[in-house]
Amino acid sequence: MKLIGLTAVASSAAVAVGAYCALPAAAAPADFFAGKTVSITVSGSAGASLGLYCRLFAAHWGKHIPGNPKAICQFRPGGGGTKGASWVYNKGKKDGTDVGQILSPSVLAPTLRGAKYDASKFIWLGSITPRPAVVTVWHTSPVKTIEEAKKKSIIMGSTGFGSETYLLPMFMNATLGTKFQIIRGYKGGAPINKAMETGEVNGRMNYWTGWTTVKKKWLDEKKIIQLVQYGPKIPALPNTPHLRDLLKSKDHKQMLTFLELSEHLGMGFWVPPGVPKDRVEALRKAFTDTMKDKGFLADAKAKRARVDPISGAKIEELAKAAFSTPEPVIAQLRKYLKFKKKK
């Protein structure tokens, strides 16, 4: 899929790939990382699928990094992933020992509503898998299809403005005429799941891996119904409509392409600008080697965690293209989402 994005930041995106090139390392990667701890800041809660993937990755990554440092996960949920991303970008060490695991919609936040970081300058190490997504309702919901959602109002749970649990229902209301009522303020995906189970809300947006890894039993027991899918197509859902196919306007499809950058990035890991080039290369190679590690793959299979890796260079290519979407299209998207551009 060809991605398009914001012209306003194209120039900064163009230098993202080389953002780390000017700073030579003081010591060889093996000497530098030996005896150290690499901290992965997860922009989500420990109980969600993001935390599961971090723990799975951290258990194997360190042995592939030169010097064999210990890798650990730290959790900084909040702000639709912006709290964790901001911490890594602004306060994390620029030496390769502070790594971010993205809650993927937070890469959209600086463009859509402002954030204290520049996502076009992230240095990507790789992604374990894209994260195709779905809009889901509980089996007792009065709405069970998109057409019904255009006629009846139902309640959708959301963590907050920056989360795709907010972005996608709002986008669908504006472009398809659905009647989702969005209740924000849940402290992560797990509380929303509980609210669905108790009837407090009727549904939510979720990543497909969030259901297959955390709530596989709900799928098996048909407790949840998928209204629509978006991002990379999900082979397991051949009869669930794709959001792109439901949109009629070219501008709306461009908006979706920008939003879908999140799904294509998926379970991505990054370091802030300023990390020496040879350490970035070492961390990227260690990422690639971990994706081939038999122990890692066996653990992922046991946890039903999809592994379909994307290289750091490929992610930077996708992000660079996405950050050149025409500004008028983005401006209209902000209106749909009720965001004001922050200067």
Structure description:
The protein is α/β, with parallel strands linked by helices. It folds into 2 domains: 7-130 and 264-326, Bordetella uptake gene, domain 1 (D-Maltodextrin-Binding Protein, domain 2); 133-259, D-Maltodextrin-Binding Protein, domain 2, CATH 3.40.190.10. The chain has 17 helices and 11 strands. The chain has helices at residues 10-14, 29-33, 49-61, 82-90, 109-112, 146-149, 164-176, 189-198, 208-214, 216-220, 243-246, 250-259, 261-265, 277-292, 294-302, 312-322, 327-337; strands spanning 37-42, 70-75, 98-101, 123-127, 133-138, 154-157, 180-183, 203-207, 224-230, 268-271, 310-311. The strands form 3 sheets. Strands 2-1-3-10-4-11 form a 6-stranded mixed beta sheet, with helices on both faces. Strands 8-5-9 form a 3-stranded antiparallel beta sheet, sandwiched between helices. A two-stranded parallel ribbon has the order 6-7. Helix 3 (49-61) runs antiparallel to helix 15 (294-302).
Structure summary, number of beta strands: 11
Fourth-tier CATH superfamily name of the largest domain: Bordetella uptake gene, domain 1
**Number of helical elements:** 17
Task: Please identify the structural class as seen in this structure.
Answer: alpha/beta
Task: Specify Rg, calculated over alpha carbons.
Answer: 20 Å
Helix content: 40-55%
End-to-end CA span = 31 Å
CATH architecture call of the largest domain: 3-Layer(aba) Sandwich
Poorly predicted segments: 1-23
Overall geometry comes to globular
Mean pLDDT: 90
* Largest sheet strand order: 2-1-3-10-4-11
Number of domains: 2
Relative strand content: 15-25%
Q: How is the main sheet built? A: 6 strands, mixed
Could you tell me the CATH topology label of the largest domain: D-Maltodextrin-Binding Protein, domain 2
SSE string, helices as H and strands as E: HHEHEHEHEEHEHEHEHHEHHHEHHEHH
Q: Using the coordinates above, name the CATH class of the largest domain.
A: Alpha Beta
